[in-house]
Amino acid sequence: MPRAAAERKPRTATGNVSRIATRWAATGVEWGKRALGVDGRPPRHTVAEVLHGDEADSPGLNDREIAALRGIRRFGATGAILMAVGALGAGAQPVLQNPVQGERLLGLPARIPSVALTLTMTGTVMVVLAWLLLGRYAIGSLHTGPVRRRLSRSQLDRTLLLWIIPLSVAPPMFSKDVYSYLAQSEIAARGLDPYAIGPASALGVDHVLTRTVPTIWRDTPAPYGPFFLWMGEGITALTGENILAGILLHRVLALAGVAMIVWALPRLARRCGVAPVAALWLGAANPLLLFHLVAGIHNEALMIGLMLAGVELALRAVESSAPIRGTQLFLLTSGAALVALSATIKIPSLLALGFVGMALARRWGATWKAVALAALALGAVSAVVLVGVSVASGLGMGWIHTLGTANAVRSWMSIPTLLGLGTGLAGVLLGLGDHTTAVLGLTRPIASLVAAFITVRMLLAVLTGRIHAVGALGVSLGAIVLLFPVVQPWYLLWAVIPLAAWATAPAFRVPAVAFSAVVSVILMPNGGEYPPFVIVQAAVATVFTAGTLIVLTRHRLPWRVNPTPHADGGADGPERPAAYADSP
């Protein structure tokens, strides 16, 4: 056959299939790059455009607003005091060694539970309302634009301190997790492995520390990292089986974490072009933090505080114009070590190291070689900290195998769990049987894959400069929290606090404020359940009391968006600078 005829030979079916497969593969790769944001095209409608915007500085409050601020401060402090008093009867009190039991005056709330619950619920609503009113002078109205005048850092710090003090001396509220901390620390102090045995088996069912541990956790190993239990061992060495002393020292740890949040959050906000006071109001003064990290004594306070402090120190080096050596290298290493240390309390905070690494890789040229070098450097620091703490504490690496302990709880706030529970309920109602467990086995892995994709997308967005590392961290933690198999109310702070330093748009602030306020007032202060009739009585009394207080303070507190101008200079009045030292 001539060569020309051979060249005109019809194409075979195998060749056609090969070309189609090649074209599909190329299309798939292109779609994958586009989904991950590495296709080189200009970004459109990015997360940063939707959620972030720089905030300009605002002048200080005028005389009328300062007077209103004092009223808001007292209103919230009164609510916090009511919570502390009501918690003597409605809080998460220990079964044994209750210090107020049998006392003539301090034990009175425990003998009238409906009144104690009413006091606590009323105080809770007052603190939430005061927080919302304070927002008028921190971020302005969410509907009428940015704040015209903003309270100073000093004014916010004093307000926050005044609200925290009563909750710091109150009995535990909203959760009994602190009793699990005490029991697991006692297990470790006895030389047993808290990652292999639960309080009931290690200490005995009738042990003073086991008795108050919630039943669901009495036979489960500790889900916390070795650094937290190591500190718990130290507390046990000081307090022994004294529950009250152990609670107070664990609250000191929680307050140390809150102090680190207050230190790091405004600095990260300035780094992102956000008003520090606005970030502190939404992040540090958030009722979820006050109620669950301070009053509830959750170890998230220490985890988030170490994580944010580490990110701030590391970004000082990464975003500095000076070469990364000497002081800058020390800041970078210290920051990475703090983030890794926070992961030895709860592992999700280790994610922050990835975003610091991507910011570092971008500084080094945003190449894959730079990514590998940054991962190697920060990975080495984190490995030294994780392994070092595990070995030095004597607890070993067993904590890695208990990270999924909390998955035994079915939380309605988790999207995949809610879908599974809803589908299972629908099956029961339709007579198809209860397939909740099977559906959860499907929805939870899918949700994990979605959260992993969002995290990878955010990491690459930091590398390409489309989003700041702090914002990407908050978005990723938000996806992980909402798609996590178990979501507790205070888990929301994993995302809300970092995002408070970056996200300024109503698309974030409106749902964050609404959800924080609603969740803060619907949970029972004793960490359990009350009889329905007691809850109804307390709720009715709380609504009546709160309504009465609003009426009585309608001329003193800024309940309305546009208060009526006063005769002494109008609504605005003379302005004052937002200086730290000059604020009341």
UniProtKB/TrEMBL annotation:
Q: Where are the transmembrane segments?
A: 74-92, 112-134, 155-174, 243-265, 277-295, 330-360, 372-400, 412-433, 445-463, 470-493, 499-523, 530-552
Q: Name the GO cellular-component terms.
A: membrane
Q: Name one GO molecular function term.
A: glycosyltransferase activity
Q: Which UniProt keywords apply?
A: Glycosyltransferase, Membrane, Transferase, Transmembrane, Transmembrane helix
Give any Pfam family that matches.
MptA_B_family
**Where is it mostly found?**
membrane
Q: How does it sit in the membrane?
A: Multi-pass membrane protein
- InterPro entries per the UniProt record, alphabetical: MptA/B-like
Per UniProt, subcellular location reads as: Membrane
Residue span of region Disordered: 563-584
State the family it belongs to: Belongs to the MptA/B family.
**Protein name as catalogued:** Alpha-1,6-mannosyltransferase
What species does this protein belong to?
A: Rhodococcus triatomae
